[in-house]
Amino acid sequence: MENKHRRSFLKKAGIAASSLLVAPTIIPASALGRNGFTAPSDRINMAFIGAGNQAGNDVQGFLPDQRVQVTAICDVNKKSPGYWNGKVAGREYIQQVVDEYYSDKHGTSYRSAVGYTDFREVLQNKDIDAVEVVTPDHWHAIPVMMAAAAGKHIYCQKPLSLTVEEGRAMSDAVRKYGVTFQTGSQQRSSHHFRRVCELARNGRLGELHTVTCGLPGGTPDFGKTGHLTETVPVPKDFDYDMWLGPAPEAPYSPCRTHVNYRWIMDYSGGNVTDWGGHHPDIAQWGMGTDHTGPVKIQNAQAVWSDHPVWNTAVRFYFECVYQSGIKLIIQSDKDFGVTFEGTEGSAWATRGDHKINPETLADTSIGPDETALYVSENHYRNFIDCVFSGEETIAPAEVGHRSISLAHLGNIAMMLQQDLDWDPVNEKFKGNFAANQLLSRKMREPWGALFREYKV
C-alpha cells in the first residue's frame, strides 16, 4: 500500500536536498542515483527538533540510511556543555555532526543542515517530509500534534508524553492525519526482547501470572550540573523562556536544563518514566496488552529526591493489576530487566541478553498458527521503511502512549500514596477526583491555547 503522502514528498525531496547542499560543480554519480546510491527524488528530507545528547545518538542512526537526507536541526540552545557526562551539544553542534558526515561520505565540503530556533518554522517548511521530536518530555505533545497536522512523518523519542492527557492527544492526532509514527522505544527492535515476548504470548511459560520490570533508581547527575542549583543569568544563545514553553515559569539554574531536566516533575518523571518507556513497554508487548492497560495500581511506595531543585522519585515500587489477573511489578534497583513468570517457566531479557527457564524451552519454535511478533532489527530503518510502505511501525503512537501511561499512573499513585482503580477504556480513575486531576498539567500560555487548538 502506497502511503498517501509519499508521492508529494518524493517529488520535492530532491529539490530541497539540492538547495541545501554546497555541491561540487561536476555532479557526482551518487547524486544521480547511480553506483548503488539513492537518487535525491527517492530521499526523505528529515529535520531534528531538539539537539541534545539523544539527538546526537539518533542522528547517527539515521545518517547512514541513503534514503534519508538530514536537512534541518532545531534547538533553542546554540551550543554548550551540560549534556551527557558534561559534554557539548546544541543546534550548531549537531549541525556540524551532520555536515561532517556528508562531507566525509561524498569527499567534498557539504553544508546540509540548516539551523532553526523555533520548531514552528520547521513545520512550516514544505520541503521537510519527516521530523524527529527529541526534546525534553514536556515539549513532545505540541510539536507532535502540529507535525501530524502538517503531514510530517514523526519519530518521537520516549518517554512519549509528560501526562496521560498529552499521550492521548498525540495518538489521536497521529491517527487523524494518517502520518507514520515511531516511538523511540528501541528495545522492540531487539531479538532478545522479541524472543521472550513470543514465548510469553504463546503459552510456552504456562499461564502467565507475574511480570517484573526492574528499573534504575536515583537521580544520576548526567550533565555534571547537579551542584549548580543557584539562580544565575541565562547563558547567551539559550532561549530559556522557549525551553520552558508550556511548563511553569521557573528561575534559571544550570541543574534544571539539558540532560538533567529528567529529575524535575514539571519536565519529566524521573527514572520511572525514563526507563518506563523501555521495560514496561516490553512487559505490555509480552502480555499482549499494547492497546489497553491495568485496572488497578496498588502498593505504591516511593522515596523522593531531597535535592534543592530535583523532585522525582529516587526509589520506587508499584504494582499494576490487569483484568486477566496478571500482576506487573515496576520497581527500582532490583531484578533489572523484564522477567515473565508463568506456571511452567520464566523468561528474562535485558539489552543484549536473555535467559529462559527451564532451558528446554529455549529450543522451542513458534509455529505458523501461533502469534509471531513484529520483526524489526533496526528501529530507525523500520521508521523509514514504513514511511515508504505506509505500514505501521513496530512502536506506533498508541502503543507508546499505553506503555508510558503505566509510569504516569505509578507516579500518581506514589504521590497520593493510594491504591487506585483505573478504567483503561476511558482512561480515568474510578471515584478519585484528586487522581484524575493529575492526568493532565496546566500549560503556560500561549502554549496551552496552541495545545487546545491542535487537540482532535
- Helical content stands at 25-40%
Along the chain, the helix and strand elements come as HEHEHEHEHEHEHEHHHEEEEEEHHEEHH
What gap, in angstroms, lies between the N and C termini? 26 Å
Mean of all residue-level pLDDT scores? 92
The unreliable regions are 1-37
Biggest β-sheet, characterized?
9 strands, mixed
Number of strands: 15
Strand order of the largest sheet: 13-12-11-7-10-9-8-14-15
- Compute the CA-based radius of gyration: 22 Å
Helix count, per DSSP?
A: 14
Write down the overall geometry.
Answer: globular
Coarse structural class: alpha/beta
SSE topology sketch:
Elements: H1 6-20, E1 44-49, H2 53-62, E2 68-74, H3 91-106, E3 114-116, H4 119-124, E4 130-133, H5 141-149, E5 153-156, H6 164-177, E6 181-183, H7 191-201, E7 208-215, H8 240-244, H9 271-274, H10 279-287, E8 296-304, E9 313-321, E10 327-332, E11 337-342, E12 346-350, E13 353-357, H11 379-389, H12 397-416, E14 420-423, E15 428-429, H13 433-437, H14 447-454
Helix pairs in contact: 5-6, 5-14, 6-12, 7-10, 10-12
Task: Please explain how this structure is put together.
- The chain has a nine-stranded mixed β-sheet with strand order 13-12-11-7-10-9-8-14-15. A six-stranded parallel β-sheet has the order 3-2-1-4-5-6, sandwiched between helices.
- The protein is built from 14 helices and 15 strands.
- By secondary structure, it is of the alpha/beta class.
- Helix 5 (141-149) packs parallel to helix 6 (164-177), helix 6 packs antiparallel against helix 12 and helix 10 packs across helix 12.
- The chain starts with 5 loop residues before the first helix and ends with a helix.
